[in-house]
Amino acid sequence: MVDSTQNPVAPPVPVLECRNLSIHYGQVVAVNDVSLVVPEHKITAIIGPSGCGKSTLLRAFNRMNEFILHTTTQGEVLYRGEDLYANGIEPAEVRRRIGMVFQKPNPFPKSVYKNVSWGPATNGFTGSLDELVETSLRKAALWEEVKDKLHNSGLALSGGQQQRLCIARAIALEPEVILMDEPCSALDPASTARIEDLLFELKARYTIVIVTHNMQQAARVSNWTAFMSHGHLVEFGSTENMFTRPQKRETEDYITGKFG
């Protein structure tokens, strides 16, 4: 467990929590005995050097690691207190409630409209798809840019627009949590700024967990930060404390660029 003295202000009741979580790829330990909480309607950043396990940890929150062969998971991952890896839990339902946006924008090779409506339509949505598409695109700050291009291919959009389309696609399934794995790493500075502005708007409605290698981005957008190294959780606390008063020397060295 993380030493409670690292963060004297306890986070709110978590939406997500992992307890003594370890994940192996075959014989390789990717995440080692990590315990962490994700507070509601906040942005939690996971930072750390390449290969430290941060993306593996992120994928554990909606069981995406199960798509990787020879992966084993030990410990608990809780959503509203319910173990997501317990017998009888349906992974597809987990991924509906806990959506994900990947590093590289990956719109379907379909129209903008189909990109947003496809998931709900195939999951039994019975309301107005037109309204759902518009609402989702508005929430992703994309509607005004694509409202006259709804039947054009999503692949024709710019990189930043494609990433916001992927966010709209996730929102359309009405998740409670949105996981983002390096969502800006393939984008130019202007598109990155748009995504960061969008994150501030989205956290009023959703709980967000973001993996980022960009220290400045983590400091700008997140409320809480977890620093990982070699599969271990080194430190977790409020972002302000983490970047101004880190409790561990290893954290300070990473944040100040002495390694990583």
Keywords:
single chain, 260 residues, alpha/beta, Rossmann fold, four-stranded antiparallel sheet, 10 helices, 26% strand, disordered N terminus
Supply the CATH architecture: 3-Layer(aba) Sandwich
SSE pattern: EEEHEEHEHHHHEHEHEEHH
Instruction: Classify the helix fraction into a percent range.
Output: 25-40%
Return the structural class: alpha/beta
Shape: globular
Return the CATH class.
Alpha Beta
What is the strand content?
25-35%
**Which residues form runs of ≥5 with pLDDT under 50?**
1-8
The total tally of domains equals: 1
Main sheet makeup: 6 strands, mixed
Secondary structure tally: strands: 10
Spatial order of strands in the largest sheet: 6-7-8-3-9-10
Radius of gyration, CA atoms, in whole angstroms? 18 Å
Per CATH, what is the topology?
Rossmann fold
Structural account:
By secondary structure, the chain is an alpha/beta fold. It has a single domain, classed as P-loop containing nucleotide triphosphate hydrolases (Rossmann fold), CATH 3.40.50.300. 34% of the residues lie in helices and 26% in strands. It contains 10 helices and 10 strands. It has helices spanning 54-60, 91-97, 112-122, 129-139, 143-146, 159-172, 189-202, 215-221, 239-244, 249-255; strands at 14-25, 28-39, 43-47, 71-79, 82-83, 98-101, 177-181, 207-211, 224-229, 232-238. Strands 6-7-8-3-9-10 form a 6-stranded mixed sheet, sandwiched between helices. It has a 4-stranded antiparallel sheet with strand order 2-1-4-5, with helices on one face. Helix 7 (189-202) links the parallel strand 7 (177-181) and strand 8. The radius of gyration is 18 Å and the shape is globular. Mean pLDDT is 92; it is low at 1-8.
